[in-house]
Amino acid sequence: MTELFEILHSTRAMRRLRPNPVPDALIAKILRAGASAANGGNIQRWRFLVVKDLEIKKAVQVWYKRAYDEVIAPRYSSIAPPPGTTAERYARQHAAVEYLTDHFHEAPVWIVACLAEEKPTRWSGASIYPAVQNMLLAARELGLGATLTTRHLLYEKEAEAALGLPPGVHSYAILPIGYPMGRFGPVGRGPLRDITFLDRWGENWDIPEEG
Ligand SMILES: Cc1cc2nc3c(=O)[nH]c(=O)nc-3n(C[C@H](O)[C@H](O)[C@H](O)COP(=O)(O)O)c2cc1C
Asked: What is the fold of 4-194?
């Protein structure tokens, strides 16, 4: 069993996945982890669509790819590497993003995280993304690669129609899941002291060393 903190610091977007099937028992374990998450009032409006059908995945991939070509690819070529990363690492991320775009439908299983909520508000996301994060962590613990993706929302109507979602149900993330081609490794993030203040906004906190 891997330690929780090791899992937290190494749950990266794993975009290169093998097409080999994932046993249903593992998918169920991931879903149970998701459905254990915090959610507003414990009302549990979350719904999880497990997609294995290649034709459905292909129909969604078309929109995912179009959004890449129109929005994401131009953005990657115009912005600087984010904090905690290097130009080289950022270029590798871009290549992986492009790879996942082209192979999105080949991930053996997707979990589409949805909410049965007619009029979504900012609170809605707060009641589904904890479940999404739990599922990413559970996948990592099981040695499965996954990525939190939301790009299909740039073509929300089209993608949700391809997914066959009924009226009043909206998708918040698609998690393509499969056995990873590469290895898990540490996430790249900026220093904590740059994003943490004590008592007053802008006043740095002398963060204790890791112990
Ligand atoms: C709201 C949100 C939407 C995201 N959408 C996508 C996506 O559509 N496609 C993708 O490849 N990665 C997506 N990601 C993954 C991020 O790109 C990734 O978490 C970030 O680059 C950090 O990389 P790491 O998790 O490997 O450290 C998304 C992440 C979040 C939180």
From this structure: NADH Oxidase (3.40.109)
